[in-house]
Amino acid sequence: MDGFDPLNKDFFESVFNWTGIGIGVVDLYGSYWKINDAWAQMLGYTNEELLSKSIRDISHPDDTEKSYSSLQAMIRGEIDSYRFEKRFVRKDQTEIYCDLIATPFKNSHGETVGVIGVMIDISDRKMLSQQLLSLKNLYAGSALVHQNLLQEKDLGSLLEEVCRIGVSYGGFVAAMVADLDRTTRQLHIKTTACPDPVIKKMLDVLELSSDPESPAGIGTVGESVRTGRPVFINDFIAHPNTGQWKERAKYANVRSVASFPLKKKGNVIGTLIVLSDKIGYFHSEVLSLLTSMAESISYCIDSLDHRENLLLSSTVFREAIEGVIIADYHGKVLMANRSFHEITGFLPEDILGKDIKVFHSDSHDRNLFRKIFKSVATTGKWEGEVWNRRQSGQIRLHRLSVVGISSKEGMLTHFIGFLSDITAQREEEDRMRRLAFHDPLTGLPNRMLFHDRLDQALRGAKRSDSAVAICYLDLDEFKPVNDRYGHQVGDELLKEVALRLERSIREADTVCRIGGDEFIILFPNILDENEIERLGEQLLQEVSKPFAWGDELLYVTASAGLALYPNDGAELTDLLTQADWAMYQAKKYGRNRLFWKVSPSAPNDSEF
């Protein structure tokens, strides 16, 4: 890169390879000049292969323009940096989601000669978030399907609506229902919901069979119809039994397929087929939900001859996985199904004829229930989450859908509520969110959460003209303790260090564990630079106190490096680099000490 004045080589290499986070430097044309091993490994390339690429070569097509525009804007000096989530394409053509932070790379004359990019792999978090959102949408879609099952519709219209809801709420490539011809054992597509008309036309003429000797009978659909059980393939293109459909699956971007048999009086008469563009889509919770939906459709088919009694006595009402409750216009409970009693703990004799308010908890004020009534009266429905009281007094979170039933004259006469207990789901979502942002051993925030909090602290400091300090802290001689006493003792020592560090900081400060025996501490709102020394020394003193393990006292110390905004850098990556460098200087000059240096090239080192 023309005009580039390199830093000390050892320092430069340590910065590039200090962590598993990907780092790359591109020139003004977007071609890579330097990368670290982590970035090449994240993309599945060798360093030499990746250095021959440009940003456009490895960017997802949908993100290329945004990335290139931001790059050019920064080169032109219109923005100082940019940060957003971006998709890259690995060598094997799979996608990787990254949190991208980009800042200008300048030569010794202050001229922008390239861009430094820091990439954090957030693919797992993104996948988890997408799974949770998909499951949440499916629950909402399931409630809507069951509402349709209670309405007076012919079977064809009902199945069309089920497929449409599946695609709309589940985000499927397509949802189809196929009828079984028992004489020929052929399956004929009866209805298809698919946003893409070209793909829909292709799916409508699929050859499907339940005959195991026929090529069209191999795979999910044929096996599902033959066994009467749901069958799924979570990596359709790679599966050995999908040969004749493989090319069409690639064209339609179908990655997972599931088939759920539909029955009448216990006999399979067809199947509900669901296609997803995500590998591994059909995990246990999704399968359970879609199986229940298919079973409810089967119950509805069984009871079509008695449609006039469906509202109060159909099998769908009795067997629905959601709790169903019917109340009159005044809120008096008329009927509730078995699932409702299981969900709430209230027996029929406890609630029939009683006001529906018996379930209400104190978590909501009257405005919520006025809002529900107004929505049902004006739009015919309401959906949301409500904290309700079980018969035992326990408070549970329920997904509630309410629809109104009107007379022929259009007067609202009844309310039907569909209830699902989503307490465990919400607790699992909270747990997974915590796992995504916290260290599992110590419970401290992890690197990802630290980056977010540091970014917020820097934004606040720029607005309030205050300072922010970060401190990299690495334990000295931890490995000998870990090797001598074992990992259990080592883990307990790390947890004790975490507790001591948390006790030593201010309320606004944050302690994070970033891996191994490394910690990083964020000090926002620094009003006096002298305060840094006091805070840092306090941390080292706490760590150096003996640790009791049985009858023995264990001793470790720590080396720490400090960086201060704005003195040591104005951007997140600058501060992280400076603090990491300073920590290694503390190690170099004898350990068990604090080190702070304004700039790697400045003469005024500060060793505390």
From TrEMBL:
Domain PAS: 8-78, 316-365
Protein name: Putative PAS/PAC sensor-containing diguanylate cyclase/phosphodiesterase
SUPFAM superfamilies tied to this protein: GAF domain-like, Nucleotide cyclase, PYP-like sensor domain (PAS domain)
InterPro entries named among the record's database cross-references: Biofilm_reg_signaling (IPR052155), GAF (IPR003018), GAF-like_dom_sf (IPR029016), GGDEF_dom (IPR000160), Nucleotide_cyclase (IPR029787), PAC (IPR001610), PAS (IPR000014), PAS-assoc_C (IPR000700)
Domain PAC: 82-134, 382-434
GO molecular function annotations of the record: catalytic activity
Top-level taxon in the UniProt lineage: Bacteria
Pfam family, any one: GGDEF
Chain ranges of the GGDEF domain: 466-599
PROSITE patterns per the UniProt record, alphabetical: GGDEF (PS50887), PAC (PS50113), PAS (PS50112)
